Amino acid sequence: MDVVVEVFDTFFFDRLYATLLPAPYAQYAQYATPKTTPNGTYSSMREVPTPYASTYQYRPASEYLSFQPGEYAYISRWPRDSVFRQAVTLYLITWYALSLYTHLTIPRTSTNPRSRIFGLVIYFFCATFSYLFIFDKATFNHPKYLKNQMRMEIAQSMHSMPIMAIFTVPFFLLEVRGYSRMYDSTAEGPGMWYNILQFPLFITFTDFFIYWIHRALHHPLIYKRLHKPHHKWIMPTPYASHAFHPLDGYAQSVPYHVFPFIFPLQKFAYIALFTFINVWTVMIHDGEYVADSPIINGAACHTMHHLYFNYNYGQFTTLWDRLGGSYRKPNEELFRRETKMGKEEWGKQAREMERIAKEVEGEDDRVYVKEVESKKAR
Length: 378
Ligand SMILES: [Zn+2]
Ligand SMILES: [Zn+2]
Prior knowledge:
By secondary structure, the chain is mainly α. 55% of the residues lie in helices and 1% in strands. It is elongated and about 75 Å long. The structure holds zinc ion (ZN) (2 copies). One zinc ion binds at residues 214, 218, 227, 231, 305.
């Protein structure tokens, strides 16, 4: 994250903090000519420059990518290494970055034109890309597609992201302040072999923990309070990918944040993995059942999870579902164009879903488009 913070500081936050929280002029002057005694300590307490702008020294976050800071980096009451500034900056970046997934270009067909005004990037970007080019719009006719579903998915995501970001900041802050095992050059890391191995290690580690966290979220004592909002969507759209109760979304993201405190992780690999995670989360909700893989927990597996609740808790692989006895092979019909969106398959899905939902949730309080339409027709 320090690389990301440096980029944002250079192009945006330096100027913002220098404008909103300028260092008093005297401090700035002192920074230019610090009064020190010959032995290098400050001559008297009164002359000690406040530990703001004056103490900050630029050190690039990475030797591969760095930006020489301009004058704005030195003239704020909150210098770049102030813990308060870092916390606020990380909060804004996390919130913005999360939202970016969904936000940039809400589709014109969206039922909520107002949400197009907000300029927040990755969620909106990925989900919108997926919605426009991958997502099968026939889903809208599924008997279990909800009234105003996309609008509700986006609203749930927008509501959760600022809260999730608050809980995520402490991890990023510790990491930016150098408490994690993140490394820059290969010489600082375990070696060339690890530059490759860290990817499968990260996936294996997080896959294991997310499986158990997700499974725990389905425990009857927790489910209704925390995880039910994400299961409102029986036939999710790409916008459901981040539509969680904030604590649910956060709980499932903890393994990603804990990893670099236990294992070494290259800084850019981390950024790449974070982007991958978010794209993956959108992909398993887009209803495009690319491959009928026995190993990968793809969109078909996750569709099974949204339809039938207590199966396929996995994130990346089916390994823990198989070992934990919760694996359910996606219906064959999903992989054939003719049958995937067929009335017969949908009817079968709806009947089984209703039966399981009754067991898991009791009364079903969802409002389905088809129900509303049939009531109107009567
Ligand atoms: Zn679930
Ligand atoms: Zn889901």
